[in-house]
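Example (one chain per record):
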Amino acid sequence: MKTRFILLSLLFSGFIFSSCNPDANDKKIAETDVILKDYGGEPMVLNIDSYTLSNTNFRTTLWTGGNLQVTLMSIPVGGDVGLEQHTYLEQFLRIEEGNAKVLMGNNKDSLDFIRTVEKDFAVFVPAGKWHNIINIGDKPLKLYSIYSPVEHPYGTIQKTQEEARETEHFD
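Predicted structure:
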């Protein structure tokens, strides 16, 4: 558990540093340089903002390791991530563009934790909490999510929420 916390702390601080420090990158990654795919458990440095904003799929796995996974999401206007509960994993989400309503609770019928979020907000989902994120803005909601442990199969690309529902369990 301590190892997972240290790993998450290092990864999270690396994402923040590369996103917030303009000197962290030797060159800005142009949108044409972004290649959306799962880079697996190999060492990787990239501009997470560029990748997140370039993603137009409902879900794209960007990096899948043995204990941690990063996915990119684009939620259409009025759409949502989907009500779900992860019994044994924790999740970190960061909003890169758009406005959303975050709902969480101990019971799927009683989501009593409600917050409005926008660009640069972070959402922390404890294991066992029911949760959903609804796009309440006027453009696609762009976010990335960090799961620990891994949630989706390596290389997952789901263009729409309907495609995700066909391959995964949603309530």
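Caption: The CA atoms of residues 105 and 112 lie 6 Å apart.
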